[in-house]
Amino acid sequence: MNKTINQKAWWLILPVLVLVAFNAFIPLMTVVNYSFQETFGNNQFFWEGTTWFEQVLNSDRFHAAFLRQMLFTAMIIVIEVPLGIAVALTMPKKGPWVSVCLVLMALPLLIPWNVVGAMWNIFALPDIGLLGYTLNSMGIDYNFTQQPVSAWITTVVMDVWHWTSLVVLLCYAGLSSIPDAYYQAASIDGASKWAVFRYIQLPKMNRVLTIAVLLRFMDSFMIYTEPFVLTGGGPGNTTTFLSIDLVKMALGQFDLGPAAAMSLIYFLVVLLICWTFYTIMTRDEVN
């Protein structure tokens, strides 16, 4: 029996698609326009071709910012994903404590990004901040405003505090979808906790982990507000990630051509790596 497919539902979301395409297309075309031209103000433009792209790709400044960004993103994923899985496994599955744990996990996600940076800036100040003062009083030389290692550790810990909850909630949703019959069968077979995790829980979290890794990669690779408020990209250029370097180039130096070229390269890099991640993580799934 042939099934008739009704495509009329597309008309209901067409206005949204048009609005999103409009809002995305015009800014993107503006950036593309600037990336091939030079301007000195007064709306006067001079054709430069691919000069800005070549300049950015051959720039040591871009390479350094890109390596810092990749290192930060790798550290974030390596820490937050296993930590999120571990926390989700310890959360209760039934009872009144479920709501309490879910609310506590969601609290960091409700705090605006600029507020998170400001909170950790005050918290980690070496003289008056609770964290900074405590560490220095214990004999640990800590000053994230002057020491590159301290600045990196503070930035990473801040992001882990802010975003691990997202991984926890996604993993908890995957764990909650596992029927009790699976655990009962594993108990009858005498399976160990590791076997239950390896063959029951982890496969059931496969899709949510894919989403978690992609979201955390995109968020961490495009991070700007939190490290900018916390360290301003310093000390020196220690925490100047790609997004911060891009803003400095566009607004601080007013180099609109190179900044536009860099933003397009930035966009393509994020798109390519996300596609690679998704392809690798879903290649073993059976349709």
Short description:
With 287 residues, the chain is mainly α. It has one domain: MetI-like fold (Orthogonal Bundle). 73% of the residues lie in helices and 2% in strands.
Gross morphology: globular
Strand content: under 5%
CATH architecture: Orthogonal Bundle
Poorly predicted sequence stretches spanning 5 or more consecutive residues: none
Helix content: over 70%
**How many angstroms separate the termini?**
22 Å
- Number of distinct beta strands: 2
What does the average pLDDT come to? 87
CATH C-level label: Mainly Alpha
Element-level helix/strand string: HEEHHHHHHHHHHHH
Oligomer: single chain
Main sheet strand line-up: 1-2
**Which structural category fits the helices and strands?**
mainly alpha
- The Rg value, from CA coordinates, equals 24 Å
User: What is the name of the CATH superfamily?
Assistant: MetI-like
| CATH fold-type name | MetI-like fold
Major beta sheet summary = 2 strands, antiparallel
Domain module count: 1
Instruction: Tally the helices.
Output: 13
Description:
The protein has 287 residues and is mainly α. It has a single domain (60-282), classed as MetI-like fold. It is built from 13 helices and 2 strands, in the order αββαααααααααααα. The protein has helices at residues 10-35, 51-57, 60-90, 97-110, 113-124, 130-137, 148-176, 180-188, 193-204, 206-221, 225-231, 242-252, 256-282, and strands spanning 37-39, 45-47. A two-stranded antiparallel ribbon has the order 1-2. The longest helix is centred in the N-terminal third of the chain and has 31 residues, at 60-90. The protein starts with 9 loop residues before the first helix and ends in a 5-residue tail after the last helix.
